[in-house]
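Now for a chain:

_____
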Amino acid sequence: MTTGRLEAFSDGVFAIAATLLILGVHESAGPLGRSLLHIWPSYVAYGITFVTIGIIWVNHHTVFGQVDRVDRRFLLINVMFLMLVAFIPFPTGLVADHFRGSGLEPAALAYGATLTVTAVLFNTLWFYAAAGDRLLKANADRRVVSGISRSYLPGPFIYLTATLVALASPIASVIMYAAITIFYVLESSIFGRS
């Protein structure tokens, strides 16, 4: 099987997940001006998570630049991965809704757990395809393949660390999620040029 249909389906899920994020941004009670200022955590959560989903999409595209064909296992791994991508708006809304309250710790844990498992499945997807060049193009650039492997491996550990920080300081955890997003934007830009 070729990759075209899987890429189209995946792109659709990414688009829906990114679009669902905006549904978590809504005004609160009170005068509109004050309400719009009061919901600033929703704007920040939307922005950070939209960029995070965008980075995941770019990396998914990078993987498919090296993949020549897919098999049933790869399809199922991708479906599980996309299920988590589609779930990301839910914990994003939890963080935005509970940023100022006592519920931030479980919200930050849910957000981090979702991104950690998403990163694990993304690594599973890539390393399944790359193991023994199982699904890679015959002319796959070895430097690119090696670069993808090196740059994707730390993801689950980085997200897991930020998740565990939520147990001590949910605010620090949320700040780490933002920093991770900024890091991956910079890393992706540098990696994309080389």
Summary: The mean pLDDT is 90. Residues 40-66 form the longest helix (27 residues). The two ends are 30 Å apart (CA to CA). The chain is about 75% helix and 0% strand.
